[in-house]
Specification:
15% helix; mainly beta; 39% strand; six-stranded antiparallel β-sheet; 3 helices; 185 residues; 6 strands
């Protein structure tokens, strides 16, 4: 068990340190292997909010400035547990929500074996359904029009369609400039 480690210094002071962890197991008999790598521990130095001191002496032309710093610790584990806190103080433990790793399922079919339970109809929808039933003449609505006509009955009222006498009618009968004007409106 080993991993990557990084340490950054700023002005001689440790600014950030990260320790990585890498676990590898191999079972030759079963032809199985396991590898896990994660950032285990992060230690960072940050300026503490609203904890600074500044003094200016104009007679002596001296300036003194001091900023308090805090060192925060973050420790992670592959079991989705994170510990946060300040260095030297007890760490708070947090359970992270589960996040699926790759491969991501792009399509999951619905489970058709289990029948969905139907809940009660809301009162507003029930009133609307009763209104539709009353409009349909007391019978439950079927989704069809009551005064539906056959297609032949509708088309007999239309004027007859006259076929053109020449088979190439409409192809280039007009001059080009006139046909363009017609298309433009």
């Amino acid at each position: 068990m080993f991993g990557k480690s990084v340490a950054l210094r700023s002005a001689g002071v440790l600014a950030v340190a990260e320790l990585g962890c890498l676990v590898q197991e191999e079972d030759v008999l079963r032809h199985e292997s396991f590898t896990a790598e994660w950032r285990d521990l992060s230690l960072s130095t940050r300026p503490e909010a609203r904890c600074s001191l500044r003094e200016v002496d104009d007679r002596r032309k001296e300036t003194y400035w001091q900023q308090q710093e805090t060192r925060s610790v973050v420790q992670r584990s592959p079991w989705l547990v994170m510990w946060l806190g300040r260095l030297g103080e007890p760490l708070a433990r947090y359970h992270l929500p589960y996040q699926r790793a790759l491969p991501l399922p792009l399509f999951v079919p619905a489970d058709l074996s289990a029948k969905a339970e139907r809940g009660a109809t809301p009162p507003q929808l029930r009133h609307l359904m009763d209104f539709e039933t009353a409009l349909a003449g007391g019978s439950p609505p079927t989704g069809q029009c009551r005064d539906k006509k056959a297609v032949a009955e509708i088309t007999k009222e239309l004027p007859p369609v006259v076929q053109p006498s020449r088979p190439d009618f409409g192809k280039g009968d007009l001059p080009r400039s006139l046909s363009q004007e017609t298309q433009r409106g």
